[in-house]
């Protein structure tokens, strides 16, 4: 084939002429670079390669990372994992070989990406998120993604989403907003973990975490400042009352003093807030994670204290009375998982009292069928969104829409086993979820989520607003 025939076959002469004309109009000082970039933009991007590897999460446990290649670049994503997998959530595939990472290695998931998913996606347009996700779902053919692994599918789904944003030359959060059909983007109120307990810490505190929400801040940058200041004031309070060892941190960065009751923990947080001078501009939230200390139909708040466990069980009615009292004494705006994950009756009753927002995590597991049931039964009024419980970006967008159509709130959430990927920051802005729960303002895998939100606020300027006092009304 001659040069002219090659040019004619690929219509290169016209494309080169267009690029030169554009360079002349732009009066560029570097025409070669300008023409190269112009030609690159003229070519539609497709997925050319998908390469996965095993990396470690923040707990030192293996997880999946993916590099998705297009003719526009390489886009990387990694997935988090929780401390346990619920019955109703998508399955993360682990090898089970006790001789490798105590059974936690993810070589099978990595192999599934490199050999099966990659082959299925090569040549696809990264902008078509739903088509990519459904191609993987169809390849897996199981309800809970246990053939290929939700960890394999999600890593590719997120990487493809980043590639799609790059192809459109828009920020990732804007691409996600477009995919969801939303007209507006919102910077979420951060729910900073400040005290950790439950399965996330080695202290005697049964409650999973106490959080603070700087709803009175005017911008996200200011909210981050308030959160950091409160966290450091709390360190001083804990040191004074519980000793320096109480300032050790849990898996999500919260302080871990040995405290005897939820009220004692709330008093520590209240004192820290008072020392900041921000007063009622900072609210409080609690992740009870009650399933972890539910014994039958009773709750053992001393389950982590060997000398006291089993001596002071509370009924569900006792728990409701405790929550009512605490909400009257402290500025608590939401409680997550106040009862066992299968106790629909008492969750519904408590939610109906209207004392605070009731967020479903273990109750819902980001599962659309559980969310639909909760909506029908008015069991709670907010969804805790954990993308790895679903397995694809498209399904995450769908379950958020389901919650919003029911006038629910949505809290975008990290997992205890996190990575250096800040995808959930863009997700929370693009879907305007109102609140993001990404751990303490400490530990790199947590702060990078908050730092990404700073960058988004700086980059988008007036195109995005901070939810602030309207964190429940971002519907």
Q: Which properties best describe this structure?
A:
475 residues, alpha/beta, eight-stranded mixed barrel, three-stranded antiparallel beta sheet, 42% helix, 16% strand
Shape: globular
Assign the structural class, choosing from mainly alpha, mainly beta, alpha/beta, alpha+beta, or little secondary structure.
alpha/beta
The helical percent reads 40-55%
Number of helices: 15
Biggest sheet strand line-up? 5-6-7-10-11-12-13-14
Largest sheet: 8 strands, mixed, barrel
Residue windows where pLDDT falls under 50 for at least 5 positions? none
Nearest-angstrom radius of gyration?
Answer: 24 Å
Oligomer: single chain
Q: Write the element-wise H/E pattern from the N-terminal end onward.
A: HHHEEEHHHHEEEHHEEEHEHEHEHEHEHE
- Cα distance, first to last residue? 59 Å
Number of strands: 15
State which percent range the strand residues make up. Answer: 15-25%
Mean pLDDT: 93
